[in-house]
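Backbone geometry:

***
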Amino acid sequence: MTEQHTVVVIGGGQAGLSISWHLVQRGIDHVVLERDSIAHEWRDSRWDSFTLVTPNWQCTLPGYSYSGGDPDGFMNREQTYQFVRGYADTFDPPVREGVTVVSVRQSGSGGFDVDTTEGPMRADHVVVAVGGYHTPVVPRFAERLPAGITQMHSSQYRSAGDLPAGEVMVVGNGQSGAQIAEDLHLAGRTVHLVTGGAPRVARFYRGRDCVAWLHDMGTYDVSIADHPGGLGKRENTNHYVTGRDGGRDIDLRAFALAGMRLYGRLLDVVDGTLRFAPTLESSLDAADAVSQSIKDSIDAYIAREGIDAPREERYVPVWRPGREVTELELSTSGITSVVWSIGFRTDYRWLRAGVFDGEGHPTHNRGVTAVPGLYFLGLPWQHTWGSGRFAGVARDAEYLADRIELEAGVLPATATLA
């Protein structure tokens, strides 16, 4: 027997729940399929000291928003999980947990055939709400690290205490890498941090969180189509900053002064020796330049709007590398663990539709693909920079729900086909 639904939503995180809320409001028949449990990624794929980098007041979903007593604070891992899980409790979405989608393909008669571990389904519309981070990236040359070194991806890291005694190398300084390096450093571990091209942003400037300034400036609302970087922005690394202990900057130069060892880009491992590009100084300078440019835009906004805001001195680098290290012998380094924090690859092999580019990324306009009835939700820069935040997901979900309602209308409730 094949189940028939107007809409099948794949993924039960904040994106899948957001589109479900809109479909419920419109009376549109649908089901949400979640391979694990609602919002499980927030609990299962974050380290123990994790916090959001966006303030709590920015945490809004359709019909739901943060209501705690610390709007300017930053929810930790458990609080974020409970926030999203609590959202589901407010409107009883038709979520089926523990159901894996095996394949989705266009049906010859129109719509989509959806094969699941609970049996076949047929849908007029499919919303893919599984995000864009699927398969952890670890370079092939990691296989050449000595067998005695513990290796893990950032998605597996939980705390410094889970790693064997000794020094730790973190590869990658995006949001996760920089925060994990800080977590290890605060735990008293000697940390080796391999830097890349990640930009940074100040936590606070001229009396406010930078997120608040950028929100008021409309920065999170600029569409990718109108952005100078165009579609290439979707590949950009997020700015590193932290919400830990009420929020603060992450300054890699200050970490270096305190004993953290910094390197340029990791090129290879040859006979137990790590080889680095001499890119550390340029990476630090580039990250600082981005932070300064954001402050420039805030200054200009304050002047343009005539806002009374306190003046603030600009950041002055507290440390500069001398001669850059380009080789490190592992056997004498004291390193016993490596945490790879260089991102994820997409994996849509189960989705059999011609909507992907040469690198496996979905091609779409605001989540709407060239295949009628197939949509994506919850992708980075889906429409704006804000698409990666709760409030942006909410807006993107409303847009897609409007499209579905326009194209499908409100059809009869769930039926069963032979």
Summary: Residues 411-418 have pLDDT under 50 and may be disordered. The chain has two domains: 2-134+346-417, 138-340. Residues 280-305 form the longest helix (26 residues).
